[in-house]
Amino acid sequence: MKHLFITYSMLMLCALNCWAQETKTSAKDSICVFDGTLTNVPDGTEIWVSVPNTEERSGVCTLFPVTTVKDGKFHFERALEPGKSPYFGVEMRNSMSVRVEVYPGMKTTITGDGMNSRTWTAVNDHPDQKESNIYKKFKREKLADFVAIENKMQMAYCGIYEDSTEVGKKSSIEAARYYRSQLAPLMEEYFNTMYEFMKDRPFCYSYEYETSGLVDYAYRKKDEEKLEKCRKLYAKFPDDNSSYAIRIKKELQPQYKSLEAGDQVKDFTLNDHDGKPHSILETLGKGKYLLLELAFKNCEAEKVERPKEVLKELFSKYSDKLDIVTLTSCAKDIFDSKDFPREKWLELGLNDMSSYNAIDGTYFAWGERFIFISPEGKILAKYDSDKLQEGMKKNFPFIVE
């Protein structure tokens, strides 16, 4: 009996050792390796990585520094987290990231010229990454003017553009809007060229991203022929749960359209910084007007675009007559960090993708960031960031010039 017990114990120890070794090997095998070679990027420049917080392919990410550039090169390693979307974003702080699709244990080489990491190229053996690089190459060759202006616009949004004769001494937001206006006459060519390129291509993240751009243009133009083309592109989407899919669906399919001026609000409940739940009807029960804001506080472009000082002044002057509620989409660990301090008004976290998709899909259509709501819960109007002050004058009767 003693002999059997010892034998059984040895077998258990061997099994546990094998399990531990397999676990260790599995963890090691999940580590992805990144090697970068950059030109015109100063030594000491920080390299940041964004890591998905959900399984959703275009969801909320956590962003943090991993290494610095030395002699024009950088290197870092990062394990894929189980249950999270299999990609990383690699960037310099205050820039736009190059998205890297990966498998566990995959090696990726990144090359780039200049401070806009969105223009860098990531190469590995992942089929979606190869497809994304085909997109990037096609756009550079067939839509060179569009890509050049789009990159300048993104640099301006990030606050890292250089003054030139084109924009003079404009602020970052003024420069970004200037470049955005320069894109407008190129949008028709962009739509036609990309649609012909994409209609026979397989689904990947770049397909999803570009479809979103085409839908936005067709939706704003109210062009039914273009919208029908977009519906054909959307038919390839494997599901309708990503952030892009939610937005595309409500612009292509009337039954999913957002609430509009004249509609009554639909209630929802979200948590504040301290985990306390709040509902919209609870806020409206005070007899005040309500300004509902959607803010991506950890997005560099959104931080530049967001009229934060206007909101501060509005709240300081009229908090007895209105409430502001900001729905902020960012990872939980930075929801209340020093980089994104609390506002003086109520902030609610859209950190769970199911609540984000449901609320964003119900309230906000393309380009809308602010919703004016009466004390009775009626939607008065919806505006983008650059029309906020215009909306305040039209919809808040207590504001007198």
Concise account of the structure shown:
The protein has 401 residues and is an alpha+beta fold. The protein is built from 13 helices and 15 strands.
Fold and architecture overview:
There is one protein chain. The chain is of the alpha+beta class and 401 residues long. 40% of the residues lie in helices and 21% in strands. The protein has helices at residues 2-29, 127-142, 144-157, 172-183, 187-198, 205-221, 224-234, 243-252, 280-284, 300-305, 308-318, 353-363, 388-395, and strands at residues 31-39, 46-52, 61-68, 73-79, 87-92, 98-101, 107-113, 121-123, 269-271, 277-279, 289-295, 322-328, 346-349, 370-373, 379-383. The strands form four sheets. A five-stranded mixed β-sheet has the order 13-12-11-14-15, with helices on one face. Strands 4-1-7-8 form a four-stranded mixed β-sheet. The protein has a four-stranded antiparallel β-sheet with strand order 3-2-5-6. Strand 14 and strand 15 (379-383) form a beta hairpin. The longest helix is centred in the N-terminal third of the chain and has 28 residues, at 2-29. The chain is globular, with a radius of gyration of 24 Å. Residues 1-26 have low confidence and may be disordered.
